[in-house]
Amino acid sequence: MSALALAGCAGDKKEAEAEAGTAAEGLAAGSFAVVGPEDRLLPAGVAVYRAGEHDEPLWEGLAGEEYELEPGEYDVLVEYFGQEYWRRGVELAGGEETFKLPMGTLAVEVRSSRGDRLEGVVAIYPAARAEGPLVMEGETFEDLAVLAGAYDVRVTVQGRERWLRGVSVEGGDYEERTLLEPVGYLRVEVVDQRGEPLEAEVWVYGPASARVPVVTGKSDRPLALLPGRYGVAVRWAGTRDFSAGVAVIKNQTTVERFTFWRSEAS
Length: 266
Hints:
By secondary structure, this protein is mainly β. The protein is 9% helix and 55% strand. The radius of gyration is 30 Å and the shape is elongated.
């Protein structure tokens, strides 16, 4: 190849590099911070669209990640656990852009009349749209951040459902709901052949599920349960036993006894 050709190739390469550098220089680098209740940073997803055009995002990622976009006006979609929030006509020119979402906090407590904590699952839906998309799911006694609005809340405790309808949550509010449930108590005694107590693991199963326990615990410790019939499984030193149809009655304590044979050596 001639020197002229080599010079031409080198010139083309420099020109291409110069054009690429110019294009890169035309982009603005920045990131998004998404803030919820009590100014807590939220691990939200972010998608950036050309203003008025929402077919395909120009950039998408997580809050805190860096984007590179041409400076200009965009529509930005923030998604947090299925909740969508749009900011339209946002001017992006680089740097950090902070979105404070109009959110409140919803917490649901479930207790017995004696104050026992009853653990369960909380599912939040748009009001009057329980068949619609799930907004948020968590546990009883957990603070759940939701966009301001009205919701229907399904609370499942020990396999049984209750609904809280039309719960209104305002931006910046802490909305707490408490459900009181009538309960009875189950105390599982585990002894050896001489009647000496043994410490064992206990699983209690409800009528709706023979695989997932509604409550777990230890022997000789009262367990708060909704009235009904249960299956009870115990395990001591690798040995298991099971009893079916154990009745738990409101405001009463049911005692179920299991006996394991312990060798003289143990």
